[in-house]
Structure formats: structure tokens, C-alpha cells
Write a structure and sequence with these properties.
- This is Glucosaminidase domain-containing protein.
- InterPro entries: Glycosyl_Hydrolase_73, MGlyc_endo_b_GlcNAc-like_dom.
- Pfam families: Glucosaminidase.
- By secondary structure, the protein is mainly alpha-helical.
- The protein is built from 8 helices and 4 strands.
- The protein has a two-stranded antiparallel ribbon with strand order 1-2.
- Helix 2 crosses helix 3.
- The protein is globular and about 35 Å long.
- The two termini are about 10 Å apart.
């Protein structure tokens, strides 16, 4: 499967620019403290979203849109200092690295990862291991709208506009094409 993913490449047409996603591009583009444009973020991490979708059955479009929103396209201080691309807090069961960051409250504990790839993998583990998200796996991975709404309704984020922001990113950047991989 990894070989298939490594050989896979897709083109997303976004604002008339072709962006090629592949494993080699991801490996070259993971640079700490780099400021990303949306194109660079999609090229750098789209492969990880597809890989995570295949492993955990979560739509790649939703995964990447969440990461884009949570990190401001990889430019947030949390993502830069911790490789946490999903805003996942430590929680009582977290045994890994930690970083303090002010979000909803001052100096909250967030998960920290050795790499962005680890963040994407942990996101998949996090969603699939929480009972309040399990109903989402009855939804087809091509239905990014229902997934976005379902994640928000299950409590993923506190922003009342969260699901609409995810949907807007998916549609603006045509991320739904990733779900066909």
C-alpha cells in the first residue's frame, strides 16, 4: 500500500495553479519554522492527508482542511513549535511530548510531535479511538460536508462556525479531489 501511495500523484487545480502532491514533495517540504502559502501547505501535506485517510477512513479533504484551519496553513505558533497540526490537547491519557500554549485558556497543555507525519497519524488515532466520533464512520468518505458537521457536533472545536470553515476551505481549494485517491 505504501508503494502505491509513493507512486501516486494527483493534481489539484486551485486558482488556476496545478499543485502536484506526492511523497517525495512531502519529504522535501517538511521544514521547521517555514511560512507556508496555501499552495505550499497542500503540496507539503496533502500526501499525509491521503495516507491518513487510507489508514483511518477519514476523508482526506476534511483532514487537510482541519489542519489548514487549525494551523493557519502551517504558520501558527503551536504548529511551528510542536508539529501539532490539529490543535489536539494533551488530555489525561497522553503519554507523549507536551507543550504549553494559550488557546481557549491561558497556557493549556497540547500534544507535541517529533514530526508533522506523527501529528497526522495521531489525529487518525485520536478520532478513531473516541466513542463520540464513532458514528462518523457510517458516513461515506466522499461526504465531506457531513463529516465536517459531524466532527463539530461531536465537540471537536468550540468555534460555532467550525464546520462551515472546514467546508469553505475544502470547496475553495478543491480538496475534495483528495477523497478520490
Amino acid at each position: 500500500m505504501l508503494l502505491i501511495l509513493a507512486l501516486c500523484s494527483i493534481v489539484i487545480t486551485s486558482y488556476s495553479k496545478n499543485i502536484k502532491l506526492n511523497q517525495q514533495q512531502y519529504l522535501l517540504n517538511e521544514q521547521p519554522n517555514k511560512l507556508y502559502t496555501y499552495q505550499e501547505y497542500v503540496v507539503s501535506y496533502g500526501y499525509l492527508a491521503v495516507q491518513t485517510m487510507k489508514e483511518f477512513k477519514i476523508p482526506a479533504s476534511v483532514i487537510l482542511a482541519q489542519a489548514m484551519l487549525e494551523t493557519s496553513f502551517g504558520n501558527s505558533s503551536l504548529s511551528q513549535k510542536s508539529n501539532n497540526h490539529f490543535g489536539i490537547k494533551c488530555g489525561d491519557d497522553w503519554q507523549g511530548q507536551r507543550v504549553q500554549h494559550s488557546d481557549d485558556e491561558h497556557q493549556e497543555c497540547f500534544r507535541a510531535y517529533p514530526s508533522v507525519k506523527d501529528s497526522f497519524w495521531d489525529y487518525g488515532q485520536f478520532i478513531t479511538s473516541r466513542p463520540w466520533y464513532l458514528h462518523l464512520f457510517k458516513i461515506n468518505t466522499n461526504n465531506y460536508r457531513r463529516w465536517a458537521v459531524g466532527l463539530h457536533e461531536a465537540g471537536y472545536a468550540t468555534d460555532p462556525q467550525y464546520s462551515q470553515k472546514i467546508i469553505d476551505l475544502i470547496e475553495r481549494y478543491q480538496l475534495y479531489q483528495l477523497d478520490e485517491m
